[in-house]
Amino acid sequence: MGEPDSFQNADLPLAQRVSDLMNRLTLAEKVGLLHQHQAPVDRLGIGPFHTGTEALHGLAWLGPATVFPQAIGLASTWSPELVQRVGAAVGDEARGFHHKNPDRGGLNVWAPVVNLLRDPRWGRNEEGYSEDPLLTGVLATAYARGLRGDHPTFLKTAPTLKHFLGYNNETRRDTTSSNLPPRVLREYELPAFAAPVRAGAAVAVMASYNLVNGRPAHLSPLLAAELRGWSEDEILVVSDAQAPSNVVDAQHYYPDHVSGHAALVRAGVDSFTDNGEHPTLTVERLSAALASGRLTEADVDAAVRRLLAIRFRLGEFDPPGSNPYEEITEEVINCPAHQDLAARAAREAMVLLKNDRALPLPASGLGSVAVLGPLADKVYPDWYSGTLPYATTARGGLAARLPDPGAVRYAEGVDRIALRVAAGAGAAAGRYVTADQAPTGGPLCAGADRAGPDTWLDVCDWGRGVLALRSVANGRYLTVDAGRALANESACPGGWVVNETFELVDRATEVIVRHLASGRFITIAPDGTLRADAGSAAEATGFTVELIDDGVAEAAAVAATADVAVVVVGNHPMINGRETEDRVDLGLPPDQERLVRAVYAANPRCVLVVTSSYPYAIGWADEHVPAILWSAHGGQEFGRALADALFGDAAPAGRLTQTWYRSAAQLPDLLDYDIVATDATYLYFRGTPLYPFGHGLTYSPVEYGGLRLSAPGAGPDGSVTAGGELTVSVEVSNAGDRATDEVVQLYTRQRGSRVKQPIRQLRGFRRVHLAPGERLTVRFVLRAAELAFWDVTRQRFVVERATHDVLVGRSSADIRCAAALSVAGETIPPRAALGRTLQAADFDGYAGITLCDAGPERGDAVTATEPGGWICFDGTDFGDGAARCRAELARVGSGPAAVTLRLDDPLDGPVVGALATECRSGRYGFATATAPCAARGIRDLYAVFDAPGVALRTLSFEALP
């Protein structure tokens, strides 16, 4: 047990144990704990510890483990209870791996991802839950609660939320800045992180690669000012991989790594995920920061205290047998209970997008089913998937479901080609590209004189001209090995760098082949082997393409002979839309689009199954194909779940957690995070989507009625106060003869406001089960405080006096019941200009500007991005008149900076002040400019910038004497 009053005494309070251990550590030992791979302290019997076991939808990179549906699929269940059960299973398996191999199976797990799915082009779309902050927060809390366990003292694992903050693009992700005006920050971005932390479900957070309003997210003052105020427990903050060095290397925010590392610790980063498993550089930089005074021992102590608190809560320093989670062994990994749970999750995640009486398929009398498409007989892992212990595909699931497995007819629907060396390529001209027929493959060469199985390549089109080429000789994919040789050696496209993708580029009467990962073109070496050696198209070897089999025509022919055609399309999770790579459009890959149209033409009794990490624009299919079902990549039990859904053994009842748009033309710029100004997400989008947020059909009709609002102590007019709450009840009934689940969704809409309000906003949801004919009353508690928004005029949340529509229905666009609610909130007064300082970032409207950092550690400002850029302060009250105005101005570089103040209009409104000063101290060197001011009464105030690069931090006004 150790000394009675030592850190090993499990009877002492946590804070006392942590303090005792810290008092025993030297400063050098403390610094050694700040890297991801924490050094052991042998003299105290403290072992090594590392952060960062990936656990997004199962354990990744540790070997075979249960693979559940992708996170976006889990979210599509709209079932917090199920999501928590999945989290608990993953937490158990993390403990199992830790029991098996503590050095590899770490207990600080990096999940869930709570970044909002603001834009479906984000490459990591499958990692998140929803475009809505409430839904994301509820589901993230459920998953994290499952991971952490329910013991009052011990943690099963230590869940870490990813990635704080405003991270929703892969394009230049470590150098782009996410513009988050105050309302977007407070109403949209922060709530998703706050919910699981406030609930005690998540105990750690990872900072994100990007900058926020010009400052690296790893240096955000929100880590201390917001995040750590959400919980009384210690909240650990870990860096993303290589992000500490990015502060200097990619972002150039600090001039050297010693300064950058010191700033990170001061900002609140506790664990440095940098330079792989080697802590030497981190320790050297932090030690130098201590020696130079840029970091104090108190700064280090604050970080170490948080690190140790997590290790204590995981039971590391307690006697054997005291921690109930120690009893979990590797036997739990992919156990039968987890396999069944994976199947249930995959079933409940299925979303029926369209059904024109085509589904469910008949339980008997079905002679044959054609299962077609590039995903019909594949289950693909994604970057954060575990190693699949097994997988049931769509083809396999349907074959197992039908009485006669031979009734399933299959065609992949991909073209089969041979590449023949074009004329002019020397001795190799006229020869075919030939593959090694060994099971593990080998280098390709220009060898065969005639086309045959060893020359055939299956062409898998994943969109944007990106192809994966599979050798028929051994079923393996072409890749480029470390020596640049082209070889048929890869079991599947994947890895951090995907070496299995190519592009066929037309060149006159031939094609050339470009290897996408290296950017090099394929040439034929003197010995006849193919290599990715050419740096330019002019140096590339030309080939002619011979079509061996037309995959689309073959699939259509198979479809024509079957009773029903099920065509399965979607994405490969490692290609075109993944970590490091955003999408540029929403369309299906061209070959897949052709396949869907051809199969439907051959057999109109067609069911389209879309299996994807993100939404697609499938407008043609929605118009023509009678039934469409969507699933995220469903993990190891996908095929069984799909068969259950198609035959109605389990009625699909999932719902979309993000908007499916008709095309990318309905989306704003990927890098513009201001959802309010750009009318983005279902909250503000004013167009007609393909499928709205919350959409999903069922096999049985569900009726709604009897909406009632009841509020204790409600006023005589039925109103509630800003601090009150009400119960919203609605009756739902199953009007069909088939059991079903229904996701009842509660929305509100504020009719009038000082600011632009969401078109409607989710306030609650319940997934309920209804037997045939069953009627159920579903109740929600709605607190008036939940209707608050961020008031930029006073920097706080406010509930306005207003009438709200209370809306209940099956999706954000399918409202079945509505009622009006009066809220006796407050009226926001005009923005007072006199006697106070206006922060430039608290604007109401803008054009031609961006938010920026007012200093390296804290504060926001506004910078013009074009001449005439402006910000607006609506309803500014100048009282009886202002005599003078004052502004804090800076600019990139040095030179003059000027802002013109106008009323009512930024172009031709009356000028009431002209502020200018000479700025010589760089972007943070704000100088004060003053000028006479001639404004009175309540007017809209515009600050108009004279040139790009000019920054404004504050405005203030003096009253007339």
From TrEMBL:
Top-level taxon of origin: Bacteria
InterPro entries per the UniProt record, alphabetical: Actin-crosslinking (IPR008999), BXL (IPR044993), CBM6 (IPR005084), Cellulose-bd_IV (IPR006584), Fn3-like (IPR026891), Galactose-bd-like_sf (IPR008979), GH (IPR017853), Glyco_hydro_3_C (IPR002772)
CDD domains referenced in this protein's UniProt entry, alphabetically: beta-trefoil_FSCN_BglX-like, CBM6_xylanase-like
CBM6 domain: residues covered: 836-958
The entry's keywords: Hydrolase, Signal
Molecular function GO labels: hydrolase activity
Keyword ATP-binding recorded: no
Family (UniProt): Belongs to the glycosyl hydrolase 3 family.
Protein name: Glycoside hydrolase family 3 protein
Native organism: Rugosimonospora acidiphila
